[in-house]
Design brief:
Strands 1, 2, 3, 4, 5, 6, 7, 8, 9, 10, 11, 12 and 13 form a 13-stranded antiparallel β-sheet that branches. Strands 14-15-17-16-18-21 form a 6-stranded antiparallel β-sheet. Strands 19-20 form a two-stranded antiparallel sheet. The longest helix is centred in the middle third of the chain and has 43 residues. The protein is α+β, with helices and mostly antiparallel strands. The protein has 3 domains: 176 residues, Roll (ibrinogen binding protein from staphylococcus aureus fold), CATH 2.30.310; 112 residues; 125 residues, no CATH class.
């Protein structure tokens, strides 16, 4: 079991909060956990919470500094000093923290008022945070750090995580101190598969939590039934009592049916979660061959996106691209598909926030304006008109020198199975009507690059 610290937030009442990630081959983290380090109290300065507090500061300065120095780290141990009763979190930077990597320190002294310090492996205090404020001036620590000279420090790792980890808390503390073997090089297929399985597991866990939250409990159903029976006893005192009683018994019947249908679905989701967790642990292992990775992908019905297929005509990709490139105003670019199959390639591999143009009511080329080519990420009116001109010129409306054009983001397009080449389903869009003359068209076509 390894306990990792993820995102960090700052609270209004002088505390820091981290999102916890519990990694184990046998244990599944079914819900989110948070580690709270409170600078305003000494008794329970470090706590594991099951719900995120509401008094968080969105742009906390000290949290930003901690995230900069410790973007992701693993808890090595949690110590408490003997006489001073100070607290110290020993952490190691990075996801794969080796046993020989140096420790960083989150030291919470018990002065009045208490203060939390982030100390690097060289003994330099980078951030100091407490009720007196936040200080980021670097300062060398002259006092001995834990596990260097003072032997009065004792581990309280098991005490802090006793409720969250149960009997595995002592095991987690021991495993976190063991040196970890250097991982073998990860192949491209293994890395892509690990990301896909991790994303699927995250999505499925969120769906499972939502289903469990909506599941009516037996106690709530019994309460609804008891309430309906009470209404039936005093029906003569109620106005429109018959309708109210019918609605009450209908609510009981609906809750029972909802629970009856949800329980098999929950069992299926839990089984899928268990299989995905086991598969993810296999992919995180060191000796996994590509054939095993492919078998896991087939089992979970996942597909790793490969490079674009060969272009029509058997020509090399270096000598032929599926689009023509034009330079618009402000340095923006427009990519115009050359054929129906090229339109499919162009739209398929465009990014979700890229802009897409097409002549309305006519066959023609897809025009993509990449978001990354836009100045400040904004599509100007001049860019809209020029992209629309290219869409009209590369359609059957080219002789009209004007017309209506669809404009939308790539994320609002969908290619259904069986659709002919070049045809896509438009989920959401807006249209614009443009007119132009030969001079404007010539200036635009001269910007071919």
């Amino acid at each position: 079991m390894f306990v990792e610290l993820g995102r960090c937030w700052q609270g209004k009442s002088c505390y820091l909060l981290w999102e916890l990630s519990l990694r184990s081959a046998t244990r599944v983290q079914s819900q989110k956990l948070y580690l709270k380090v409170d600078c305003s109290q000494a008794a329970r300065a470090v706590q594991v919470l099951r719900a995120k507090p509401l008094d968080l500061i969105p742009q906390g300065g000290v949290a930003s500094l901690v995230r900069r120095h410790l973007p992701r780290c693993q808890i090595h141990d949690i110590l408490r000093g003997g006489e001073s009763a100070a607290l110290c979190l020993l952490v190691k930077r990075g996801r794969e923290s080796g046993g020989e990597s140096p420790c960083w320190y989150l030291l919470l002294d018990q002065h009045k008022p208490p203060a939390l310090q982030l100390i690097d492996s060289t003994g330099t205090s980078l951030v100091r945070f407490g009720q007196r404020g936040t200080f980021s001036k670097r300062k060398s620590i002259t006092e001995p750090l834990p596990l260097q000279t003072d032997t009065s420090w004792r581990s309280i790792f098991a005490e802090v995580f006793a409720e969250a980890l149960g009997g595995e808390a002592n095991l987690a503390a021991e495993e976190s101190r063991k040196p970890r073997e250097e991982p073998l090089p990860v192949t491209g297929l293994k890395s892509a598969a690990r990301k896909l399985v991790s994303r699927r597991l995250k999505t499925l866990s969120a769906a499972l939590r939502k289903e469990e939250k909506l599941l009516p409990s037996e106690a709530s159903i019994a309460g609804l039934a008891q309430q309906a029976l009470r209404l039936q006893e005093f029906v003569y005192l109620l106005k429109e009592g018959g309708e109210k009683i019918a609605a009450a018994f209908s609510a009981v019947k609906k809750a029972k049916k909802q629970r009856l249908l949800a329980l098999p679905r929950l069992d299926k989701l839990r089984e899928q979660q268990r299989e995905l967790t086991q598969g993810l642990e296999i992919l995180r292992g060191q000796t996994v061959e590509d054939i095993q990775v492919q078998a896991l992908l087939t089992k979970f019905r996942l597909k790793v996106e490969r490079s674009p297929p060969p272009l029509p005509g058997g020509q090399a990709e270096e000598s032929r691209t599926p689009y023509r490139r034009y330079r618009l105003e402000d340095g923006a670019e427009a990519l115009v598909g050359k054929s129906a199959r090229d339109n499919d390639l162009l739209s398929k591999y465009a990014r979700a926030n890229d802009w897409w143009f097409h002549a309305l009511g006519s066959e023609g080329s897809h025009v993509i304006v990449p978001f990354k080519s836009l100045l400040g990420g904004q599509l100007s009116l001049a860019n809209k008109k020029q992209a629309a001109i290219l869409a009209l010129h590369n359609s059957r409306l080219r002789t009209n020198y004007g017309g209506e054009v669809y404009m939308t983001r790539r994320q609002h397009l969908r290619k259904r199975a069986g659709m002919p080449p070049g045809k896509w389903e438009l989920l959401k869009s807006e249209s614009l009507y443009v007119t132009y003359n030969e001079e404007e068209l010539k200036q635009l076509l001269d910007r071919f690059c």
